[in-house]
Design goal:
The N terminus is likely disordered. α2 crosses α3 and α3 packs antiparallel against α4. A hairpin with a 7-residue loop joins β11 and β12. The protein has 2 domains: 225 residues, YVTN repeat-like/Quinoprotein amine dehydrogenase (Methylamine Dehydrogenase, Chain H), CATH 2.130.10.10; 62 residues. It is 27% helix and 26% strand. It is globular and about 60 Å long. By secondary structure, the protein is an alpha+beta fold. The protein has 4 helices and 16 strands. The strands form 4 sheets. It has a 4-stranded antiparallel beta sheet, with no helix packed on it. The chain has a 4-stranded antiparallel beta sheet with strand order 5-6-7-8, with no helix packed on it.
Length: 342
């Protein structure tokens, strides 16, 4: 009988050891930090490859003693939740599948709510233009941080929304594609009853509406997100510059200022991705990236003669693209100043 007890105890120990080994094996430490990154006064302490599903827009919240990072996936439809309480060991703890053939890469969190943008996938970003897509803004409750519950959904009736803003409270501030307008416009949505969100106000640059002339400056669209400070809303509006609105009456936003500074976020972004002439700026960025890549190849010991020939070609392309980009900048700024002064 004693030997039976010993055998049973040994079997239980082996079973426990096997379980612990399997658990350890399935939950290894963080993915190795990729080599080759360069930083100044910062240090990478942790990394996750996100199950080979790249993330894009991120938002974070603390629940109890844990920190959760929420991400919209870029090449896959849906969202991920990553436990980053230990930054050296981030762990994907939840994936939420999104609607098929739909961009889901934008996300915002505040006041225990999460808003996620849905839109038609832009050409070249992996979508199928012949298949259905979803659009709008789902509103989620985050009381259970690992199991968001959908409270409601706002729809634009068109192609969806992009980089929306939500600072908390009863209003979402959307970059919305709306029928009858060229480029995304600013739409304020009341979510005091999140099960039934409703538009509270909208604003657009003169010339964005289909029946308005003259047209807005090239590349005009609200990229977002809107930055809200008190009763002011700061809008990165692409080709139109940065717009400042008084939204004390959300039903009637009023422009109180704007900046035509070329450094305004998204001005160059929109022109380089949409305008074929100013696209030289985007090519310039790509060529410079290629040149940095050659520097890494040289450090890795690849054939230096071949690298030198490539570098000469890329240097010439950089010079040509830089000249074209400067010319496009001058033409673009001249057109924009003419629009706002008329």
């Amino acid at each position: 009988m004693k030997s039976l007890h010993l055998a049973a105890a040994s079997a239980a120990f082996l079973l426990l050891a096997t379980f612990l080994f399997a658990t350890t094996a399935t939950r290894a430490k963080a993915d190795p930090i990729p080599q080759g990154a360069v930083g100044q006064n910062i240090e990478a302490v942790g990394y996750s490859n996100l199950n080979d599903k790249p993330g894009f827009k991120m938002s974070i919240q603390k629940v109890g003693e844990r920190w959760y990072l929420y991400l919209g996936m870029l090449w896959n439809e849906g969202w991920q939740i990553v436990d980053v309480t230990d930054p050296a060991d981030p762990e994907v703890v939840k994936e939420i599948h999104g609607p098929d053939n739909t961009a889901t890469d934008q996300i915002e969190i505040a006041d225990g709510k999460m808003i996620t943008a849905l839109a038609k996938i832009s050409p070249g970003w992996g979508g199928d233009p012949g298949k259905p897509f979803d659009e709008g803004v789902p509103i989620w409750d985050l009381k259970d941080p690992l199991n968001p519950q959908k409270l409601g959904k706002f729809k634009t009736g068109s192609l969806g929304t992009h980089r929306n803003g939500y600072p908390g409270g009863n209003c979402m501030h959307l970059s919305a594609n709306v029928r009858g307008y060229k480029g995304n416009i600013y739409v304020i949505v009341d979510i005091s009853n999140p099960a039934h969100p409703k538009e509270a106000g909208r604003w657009w640059v003169p010339g964005q509406r289909d029946d308005e002339t003259p047209p807005a400056p090239p590349g005009t669209m609200l990229h977002g997100p809107a930055f809200i400070a008190g009763n002011l809303s700061y809008l990165p509006y692409g080709g139109a510059g940065m717009i400042i609105l008084d939204i004390s009456d959300v039903a009637h936003p009023k422009k109180v200022g704007h900046s035509l500074d070329e450094s305004t976020f998204c001005v160059r972004h929109r022109r380089t991705h949409r305008d074929p002439v100013a696209g030289q700026g985007h090519r310039l960025h790509q060529f410079r990236g290629a040149r940095r890549g050659l520097q890494g190849a040289a450090a890795a010991g690849l054939d230096r003669g071949y690298i030198r020939s490539c570098k000469a070609a890329i240097d010439g392309a950089v010079s040509t693209a830089a000249a074209a980009s400067r010319l496009a900048d001058q033409e673009f700024l001249r057109a924009r100043r003419t629009f706002w002064s008329s």
